[in-house]
Specification:
Belongs to the class-V pyridoxal-phosphate-dependent aminotransferase family. Csd subfamily. It catalyses: (sulfur carrier)-H + L-cysteine = (sulfur carrier)-SH + L-alanine. The protein has helices at about 25-35, 45-65, 80-95, 110-115, 165-175, 225-230, 260-280, 280-300, 330-340, 350-355, 375-390, and strands spanning about 10, 75-80, 100-105, 125, 150-155, 180-185, 200-205, 220, 305, 320-325, 340, 345, 365-370. It is an alpha/beta fold. It has a seven-stranded mixed sheet, sandwiched between helices. It is globular, with a radius of gyration of 21 Å. The structure holds pyridoxal-5'-phosphate.
Length: about 400
Amino acid sequence: MKRTEKTVYFDNASTTFPKAPGIGLAMADYLDNKGCNVGRGNYKWGYEVAEAVYKTRKKLCDLFQFKEGSDPSKNVIFTASVTEGLNLVIKGMLQPGDHVLVSGMEHNAVMRPLIFLESQGISFSVMPCDELGNLELEKIEPLIQTTTKAIIMTHSSNVCGTVLPIHEVSEICKKNHLNFVVDAAQTAGAFSINMSQTAIDALCFTGHKGLLGPQGIGGVIIKDALAEEMTGIIQGGTGSRSESFEMPDFLPDKFESGTLNLPGIYGLSKALDYLKEKGPENILKKELELTQQIISGVQDINNIKLIGIPNITGRSAVISLMSSEKDNAQVAFELDKDYGIMTRVGLHCAPLAHKTLGTYPKGTIRLSLGHFNTPEEVEYCLHALKSILK
Ligand SMILES: Cc1ncc(COP(=O)(O)O)c(C=O)c1O
């Protein structure tokens, strides 16, 4: 059964692979044949690139059903990643004395900026989740203080796949006049996120995971009201209002200084076309079928424990396992070395989530499935785990 030439990629929660077909060509086409900047030069190529960037913003508004004024595309702020988007919102929104709520399943992309801001008089409380990662909704409102400004929450755990109830939390935010900031790193592309129905003030996304685009491009879709009260965290050239030493006060320029990642935007645009063609609901369905196959299969394997929800209701295709006999890292090492199966082991940049799940500090072996994985690959992995753990 040992075959080193075979490779199986089960690290899609880190970054998806393969990406959507054609994104490399779209990026190369921009670099080789257009290559100029946007919003800087008034010439034909510049207009063409500006049109492509505008269309990408529009595709994102369509995907997330975002509507705001006559041109919601201006509310799409491009960043390098969801980490940069979350920093932009967290640091731009919060003032000394403010308090926010986060879930017990957050990634360090939320936790580290908040811990950093503690020295500036900004505080946070953790909304508890149970040992499967489910948010305990009834415990949220008692945590709200007079200084609470927002709830910042991941849509799905990057450790165990538990999906958090963004709609219910958005209702709590509405009732208590709080901003709602969602980290959609693990759900954008596969899960339906409808900003017309769910009151999200800032949706932070990354291009290289479920959106099947390249690394280095992400963003925030932000409502006007929140954008108006925020300050930018990076100041510089925008190509607009060059006579002023101050940043423009209109979107997206208020938060987009410096040259955009244009190859990344061309790649993301192509990926968004692919997602539209496939339909996020079909992508999720397939990913969850594979997830079910793993969940059922590991029940027959000795010395391994599934962490998180033991079925596919309320979860994404991220599966965490814990080995009771062998060291987790040894299992992951053997999966890679002897079977060519790539997984991720450890704390996955989310120590808070592991504390919630009771897997801190050891961490877990994470298998994260993607749109291009197959039932044969899952079967092969289950056989490999059986052999390694026998
Ligand atoms: C829930 C969550 N938030 C944030 C991030 C950070 O993503 P990026 O590295 O694209 O900024 C990740 C990546 O693993 C994640 O899973």
